[in-house]
Amino acid sequence: MTALTTASALSESNAREEICRVGKSLFERGYVHATAGNISVRLDNGFLITPTDACLGFLDPAKLSLLDADGHHVNGDKPSKTIALHRRIYDASVAFDASTRCVIHTHSTHCVALTLADNDHAETRSSFVQPRELLPPITPYFVMKVGHVPVIDYYRPGAIEAAEAVAQTITRYGEQGTPIRAVMLSRLGPNVWHHSPATAMAVLEELEETAKLMQQATHPITPLSHMQIQELRETFGAKW
Predict the structure, then answer these.
(1) Pairing status of strand 189-194 against strand 182-185
(2) Max Cα–Cα distance, the chain, nearest Å
(3) For the chain, N or C: smaller number of CB within 10 Å?
(4) Model pTM?
(5) What is the distance between the alpha carbons of residues 208 and 184, in angstroms, rounded to a whole number?
(6) What torsion, rounded to 10 degrees, do the Cα atoms 101, 41, 17, 73 define?
(7) Cα(196)–Cα(93) distance, integer angstroms
(8) Is residue 7 a contact partner of residue 39, using CB atoms and an 8 Å limit?
């Protein structure tokens, strides 16, 4: 894992506490429900992830799943099946941001609602030439804090095809000079990633609240103009 140790990691004990703190916060504020969602942290020598079928509001630090650098379960409860997807996100994203340390997946209501009208038949699936995106650039903080959110066509939960599509999408956007911090799994929910559980949570919050604005608008929404986005690039370094 030489390439993965270029960024400073939380200690395992601190990562356990942060995962539980963030999970509780998301649950109490309605960003996750029941046993939906999962959180992982990339350590210098492996990964921590929430257990399968765990409620993020009632996590026990001692029961989080610890995996080694090859993804083998070391201790704790049985890991979420989405560890394969999280590992592909880490593998792809560190090429563009070596400090990527946390992935959060939820079934956030407003994000999912925006994908329910998608027609996922083979003839209408998005392509890497013309990828679909969940939201247009409608607010400055969405542009600055979240950025582009490609929609990944529907696959069953845990499907390896979804993990590969996500990794390829991260690489494509990064190589085009617009690295991303989120993707949307159609009909399932967003995956977001950042340097820590707290910063990844902030991305998720901004994404879900922007989706809420989009869904609840009762009139046509005008995206920010090219000039307005360019100003955000020049002033704040926005990657749009």
Answers:
(1) antiparallel
(2) 52
(3) N
(4) 0.91
(5) 11
(6) -160
(7) 14
(8) no
**Non-local CB neighbours of 140 within 8 Å, separated by 6+ positions:** 224, 228, 232
72-88 tens-digit pLDDT: 999 999 999 999 999 99
| Token pair in block for residue 142 | 């969405």
Choice among 31, 90, 141, 173 that is catalytic: 141
Q: Which amino acid is at 94?
A: V
**Interior CA angle at 110 toward 126 and 135, to 5°?**
45
First-to-last CA distance in the chain? 30
For this structure, is 173 an active site residue? no
DSSP percent split of the chain into helix, strand, coil, nearest 5: 40, 15, 45
What CA–CA distance (Å, rounded) separates 153 from 118? 9
Dist. CA 108–CA 225, nearest whole Å: 28
Q: Which residue has the tokens 């969940």?
A: 134
